[in-house]
Amino acid sequence: MSVCVVGSGGREHALANVLARSGDEVVVTPGNPGIPGSTLVPPDDVDAELFVIGPEIPLVDGLADRLRAQGKLVFGPGADGARLEGSKAWMKAVLVGAGVPTAAHMAFTADEHEAALAFLATLPGLYVIKTDGLAAGKGVTVTESLPDARQAVAAFLSGEAFGDAGRTIVIEEGMTGPELSVFAACDGKQAVVFGSAQDFKRIDDGDVGANTGGMGSYTPVPEVGPDLIATVMDTCVEPTLAALRARGVDYRGFLYCGLMLTPDGPKVVEYNVRFGDPEAQAILPLLDSDLVALLSQAAHGALRDQPVFSRDAAVCVVLSSEGYPQSPRTGDVISGIDDARDLAGVDVLCAGVSEDDRGRLVTAGGRVLNVVGRGADLLTARTVAYDGVAHIGWPGMHYRNDIARSAAVAM
Ligand code: AMP
Ligand code: GLY
């Protein structure tokens, strides 16, 4: 079966590698010069039997609907389902209607500034203010200070902080506990678990510094057993899918459930309507099943098989460019990718790269490469990943040294 992956990052590189395993022809649009099969032909003009859409922006913009209207088989929700990620206020309304555990909240528009401040004052302590719309993972303020929270409300609602994405906000009660990402593949009616992982949002070791799109990930998460996953499916994912169906949404795609494991049990922090990046890079290579078969069944609305994963562990370390996330420097020549790939258990996935006029791979974004190590346990996978990292370099290359460190020791 020929497959077209839409997107250009490390997640799409991982998807393309795993989709290509069974000999299927895979193109990636627009991809990047480090992903085999990349093409600048737009998705509407690609001739493929299955389309898999990676990032949220084309999903929210209705690419899946447009392709389906052309008679194409698509794995990825339509714009109606993608609202789960495109509007936090709508997502929270769906969750509350479905009885899914989540933080208490209220949504406010720009002309409800006073009401927003009044609601803030009723909250017990940790204050959380979010943009309703997409803000590249940056539109969230979490603070213990009421004055800072009030200031954030003003900056969001005025449009000063995030433009139109912030003119509607969600204010919610702060939750505490470890975070966990659980993934499911959905066919509109049923959802099957597609792994879980821990990611690392902050730029520097010890979870300090700027918030990023993700500096690394690992799977499995030692504290997460089958009972916790079953609870998340029963209390969060399945009721959400049922609530979407009740609203007429036929959700066929990955559902990313961002959770906080609170003292009162798992609660949903957010949904994303796609696989996580860099969680996909750790989870997908461990799939033993045929990904093309699974995603085409889901895209047809009739999932029959359960994904089966290897018992191995995987650790993904993100290599970023100098200045990321504020102002990534680009154009630096990257060395050592092939040497890293020659090591047993190492793969290198390309995210923010382009080619210079001599055909060399150069940095072209913030998160440049993902080095994935695989092994029988987290400690081995982690060692393998960092051995791979040691072969790669460019001026100003940055990465975290502590991806999966405490989990590998705990295992
Ligand atoms: P979101 O974009 O909704 O995933 O939020 C980004 C990050 O903000 C999450 O990964 C959490 O670390 C934090 N966060 C979001 N909502 C809450 C909440 N209600 N309580 C505590 N932290 C939160
Ligand atoms: N790793 C976080 C995300 O994909 O949004």
What's the gist of this structure?
The protein has 411 residues and is α+β, with helices and mostly antiparallel strands. It has helices at residues 10-19, 56-60, 63-69, 79-86, 88-98, 113-122, 146-157, 226-246, 279-283, 291-299, 337-341, 378-390, 405-410, and strands at residues 3-7, 26-30, 50-53, 74-75, 105-109, 127-131, 140-143, 168-173, 179-187, 191-199, 202-204, 208-211, 216-219, 252-262, 265-272, 313-320, 346-350, 353-355, 361-363, 367-375. Helix 4 (79-86) packs across helix 5 and helix 5 packs across helix 8 (226-246).
Ranges with pLDDT <50 over ≥5 residues?
Answer: none
Average pLDDT number:
94
The CATH topology label of the largest domain is D-amino Acid Aminotransferase, Chain A, domain 1
Q: Quickly count the domains.
A: 4
What do we call the CATH homologous superfamily of the largest domain? ATP-grasp fold, B domain
Class from secondary-structure proportions? alpha+beta
Query: What is the CATH level 1 assignment of the largest domain?
Result: Alpha Beta
User: Could you say which overall geometry the principal axes of the C-alpha atoms support?
Assistant: globular
Structural Rg: 21 Å
Biggest β-sheet strands, sense, barrel: 8 strands, antiparallel
Question: How many individual β-strands?
Answer: 20
Helix fraction? Answer: 25-40%
Share of residues in strands: 25-35%
Number of helices: 13
Describe the overall structure:
The protein has 411 residues and is of the alpha+beta class. It folds into 4 domains: 3-84, Rossmann fold (3-Layer(aba) Sandwich), CATH 3.40.50.20; 104-173, ATP-grasp fold, A domain (Dna Ligase, domain 1), CATH 3.30.1490; 179-300, D-amino Acid Aminotransferase, Chain A, domain 1 (2-Layer Sandwich), CATH 3.30.470.20; 313-410, Phosphoribosylglycinamide synthetase, C-terminal domain (Glycinamide Ribonucleotide Synthetase, Chain A, domain 4, Alpha-Beta Complex), CATH 3.90.600.10. Helix content is 30%, strand content 27%. The strands form 5 sheets. Strands 15-14-9-10-13-16-20-17 form an 8-stranded antiparallel beta sheet, sandwiched between helices. A 4-stranded parallel beta sheet has the order 2-1-3-4, sandwiched between helices. The protein has a 4-stranded antiparallel beta sheet with strand order 5-8-6-7, sandwiched between helices. It is globular and about 60 Å long.
